[in-house]
Prior knowledge:
Elements: H1 14-23, H2 26-29, H3 33-50, H4 55-67, H5 71-74, H6 81-95
Helix pairs in contact: 1-3, 1-4, 3-4, 4-6
Amino acid sequence: MRTKLAIDGGYPNPTSLIEAILEDCKDRIGDDHADYRGHVHRMFNYCLALNPAAEEERTKLAIAARFHDIGLWSDDTADYLVPSIEQAKRYVIVDAP
């Protein structure tokens, strides 16, 4: 599958990318945004602690971290994997810089 995503995306590091793409879901998540933000960063950093990654892999991990639970809010469901995956695909193919 060919994607629109430029791996560096113009962001200085994957943490900046996480912050940029978390910002667009702030309204959707509402009062849970700060907690979700912390959760996303923890998950991202735990993954890197277990498997140090090259820059391209860190960028992909940053995107996966941001979208991995988003279906909880976007689709208001505990069965959130499919909606989360669909939103991540859309970001990579259509919305990414």
